[in-house]
Amino acid sequence: MNNTVDVINFHLTEKCNYMCAYCFAKFNNEQEFTVEEWIKTVDIVNEYFKKNAILNGRINLAGGEPLVVNYLDELIDYINSLDIKVSIITNISLLTKEKIRAWIGKVDTIGISIDSLNRETNLLIGRHSNGKTIEISDLLEILNIAKENNIKIKINTVVSKFNLHEDISSLYKQIRFDRIKLLQVRFNNDCNESAINYGISSNEFNEYSSQLKSYDGIIIESEDMMECSYVIIDPKGNLISNKGNIHKKIGSVFETNLEELIAIAEINYKTFMKRYQTEKGVNR
Known about the structure:
The chain has one domain: Aldolase class I (TIM Barrel, Alpha-Beta Barrel), CATH 3.20.20.70. It has a ten-stranded mixed β-sheet with strand order 7-6-5-4-3-2-1-8-9-10, sandwiched between helices. It is globular. It is α/β, with parallel strands linked by helices. α1 runs parallel beside α2. A hairpin with a 6-residue loop joins β9 and β10. Helices cover 30% and strands 18% of the residues.
């Protein structure tokens, strides 16, 4: 197996306008990178891609909520200038039609996080901003604009006690998602310990997932599958391992060669490949 990675996640910030109870994207940094430092990080990733002859590399911009940072579009433009694909993970609350149109030809994929279509459930989870939750009609309008302009759309749903008995497949029928990802809620000892109270068993997760297996492009990730299978750079430029329900800082990409950091991060390449590639091996 070729032990290289072609998708690297930049967690630009821990800041978010939502307060999700089981958010794991917390890295305990007092300060966060500036756009200049992120641009230098892009250069490091570009060098890694070139050295390993990775022609279809992608940088995934995540958070927190990436749309709260004021340099997001500048960073997107720079990544594009190096012919690296850009994807974004967002809670969609700050996404607008104007933003979508500005991203045409620049953003390959938008991943949206939707755990429930029920207002009361979203309030319980913390998926709201001052009591305001996403309106499905607004969501559909924005996503349809993206689809019409060849921006791929994927949906991430975290399955927990909050939404275990909810069927959100009606949304799948209204939007033809390019990828559907179901994730079993996972707790990390150093950032979301309370999530253990909302956990579900493997049997419960498997039963929930089995009802949706017929949908095209679905990826089902149990809690175990998430361990050591994401390549994460935190808001201070540290490569992160999530082995053993804890975020471990492997080292700074500015102080140690990225290839060396990836080599010692204990990445599970089997689950990494399963997540990011289709059956034909085409990166999505």
